[in-house]
Amino acid sequence: METGRRVLLHVGTPKTGTSYLQDVLFHNRESLAEQGVHYFADRFDAHFLAALDLMDLPWGGIEEEATGAWDALAEKVRAVENGTVIISHEILASASWQQAKHALDSMGDSEIHIMLSARDLARQIPAEWQENVKHRSVVTYSEFLEEIRDPDREGRIGSWFWGVQELPDILDRWTQGIAPERVHLITVPPPGSSSSLLWERFSAAFGLDDLTIDFEGIDRGNPSLGVPEAALLREINLAVVPVIEPADYRPFVREFLAHRTLAKRRDSARLALSPSILPWVEALSQSWVDALAGRGYDVVGGLEELLVPADLAGKPFIDPDAISSREVLDAGVATIDALLQEAIRLRKSEARLEDEVAELHAELDHTRSLVPKQRAREGLERRWWGRAVLRLYRLVRR
To answer: At the topology level of CATH, where does 5-218+282-302 sit?
Structure first.
């Protein structure tokens, strides 16, 4: 039976505004459903868990929560008779051909559209190194660049990087039998563009332009670090990764230190592409654009935005592996300041909770002291002489 169900399957790539898109969809999921657009998620990372389940990926223990998540999501999709369903997570870009086929088959008789957001490699390469560092890596920038240039791509870093970044290959894996006009490539605007332009492209590609969307309180981006901040975080990893469990690293190091503290320092130099690999990246990017140009995809933005910016060669490069200790120290002092303020906040919160617990204990002790008196009074009231004693007691109390 034919349905009017359309599925927009957004499969990546990382560091292309995906966190913001997902935040908008999650916080508006109820109102969007009333407008015929479904984003099935009972928690903000629901599609992340579904992606982990689909690809059976280990992820610091979180994958244990993901068992059955993809099939549960697909079941909800198939239950929709008419309307649009959006599924979005950037790690889906790494799915194998077989995993992508399972995902597509699980959508039933849906009209499937593949959505891929992409950014030029000159920004993606430094961003991916930072993401590695924010996920407990101690690999230097130069080691990272060497890994991704390995033609065999046998290492963990290289295989993951190209799995989620090699645009023609990602689309080969995800567009099995899907007509080119149903493949939508959304390019991230170049630096200096309007801050709203990427959202406008997402909105146009996903058909959200005419819908009512509330943007208030949405701030779940994935901010980048400056060069000294990234260098500091790598040094912190060298010390804490052996002793801090992944479940503790995520809230305390990645969220509090990296995102809420270090990423707030916007005056630091931004990490850029190393000049040593610039010609190689330029040639590779051009080959991708040439390959994609002949496929007939719907491009929202422009393929030329995937090329290395022409002026990049003339810009200064600050190597995070050789940054001055003074700059790292400045970032370290800012981190200590933030940690002290957080410790003070937690101590005040702890003191307040201790006072509340003490009050509750006092109330409990008082209640317990009343129980024998209550029982004695109830016993007296059951006897004629006891009622007489109580009346006499009340007269005396007056």
So the answer is: Rossmann fold (3.40.50)
